Amino acid sequence: MRFRFDLPARIPLFPLAGAVLMPRARIPLHVFEPRYLQMLDDALKTDHRLIGLIQPEGEGLAAIGCAGRVVAFSETDDGRQMISLLAVSRFRLTEVQEGFTPYLMAEVDWSSFGRDLKGSEEDPSLDRDALFPLLRRYMESHELSTDWDAAAEAPDEALINSLAMALPFSPGDKQALLESPSLADRRELLQGLIEFALHGGDNEERLQ
User: Fold this and answer.
1) How far apart are CA 126 and CA 152, in angstroms?
2) What is the mean pLDDT of residues 172-195?
3) What is the pLDDT of residues 46-66, one digit of tens each?
4) Over 80: is that where the pLDDT of 143 sits?
């Protein structure tokens, strides 16, 4: 994946619990708070148009997020914005800078995620005949639906990343999926999380 800009040392942050952006994926976001409307306006004035999506963690922020380029936006009648971010690269948070803008700015390190800037990954070990029955049971147990024909035809990366982003895992599990070094690692973790949930893991956590 080639971009006509250099990755900046500082980017604005959009903290959002339960939302992660996987490499080369897209995510729609609804922007309505005044500070984030300002952030969007400022981002659109840059050549990179990057916004760092990152999860809150404890009293602070997760160590790793993913920066997306604003590739589409539309304004509603009441001034809110619907935007689409296209993932550019994951980053490691090095320093959060507060007080300069109404939203958070951060110094970030891109060096561990050079793979994100390359072409899409494949997962030769992906066994859809094993994954899909598990996924069907999981979807049914959570009263979810999907387009199974589209899922069967989706490339490995699109399938795994869309499931990792969309399925109702905990914020911590979603963070672990984001931090998975490779697509194969992410698929193994994804399948493990599905199997754990099907064996009662969700219920056990609720009873504790």
Assistant:
1) 12
2) 97
3) 999 999 999 999 999 999 999
4) yes
